[in-house]
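Please fill in the sequence for the structure shown.

STRUCTURE ENCODING:
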């Protein structure tokens, strides 16, 4: 079951957030951050999205981006979370133990004003 359709318009700046299921850590060691960054870089090659900034914390991340075409942000973030989850489960041998992420990404402030402030 999918939630409400999100606004995902080209040329708008978005602050996207996602966190670990039950607020659990999704990054346990430095290599976990590197793996996520490689996944994000792969996704940015596949989809027309400009990345402005990001923050990775042990149990969540923030990404500020701008889609180049309508719908590209959702496609990128869906691909990133699915690919990261598959690689996480393969590395930690946790396939079948549940979700890595709490839900789909959340949209913070549209326009990125608050995010750019910190």
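FILLED IN BY: designer on duty
SEQUENCE:
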């Amino acid at each position: 079951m999918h939630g409400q359709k999100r606004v995902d318009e080209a040329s708008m700046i978005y602050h996207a957030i996602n966190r670990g299921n039950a607020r659990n850590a999704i990054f346990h060691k430095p290599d976990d951050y590197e793996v996520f960054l490689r996944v994000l870089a792969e996704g940015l090659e596949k989809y027309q999205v400009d990345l402005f900034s990001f923050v990775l914390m042990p149990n969540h991340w923030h990404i500020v981006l701008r889609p180049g075409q309508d719908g590209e942000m959702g496609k990128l973030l869906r691909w990133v979370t699915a690919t990261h989850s598959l690689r996480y489960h393969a590395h930690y041998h946790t396939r079948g133990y549940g979700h890595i992420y709490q839900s789909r990404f959340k949209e913070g402030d549209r326009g990125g004003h608050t995010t750019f402030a910190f």
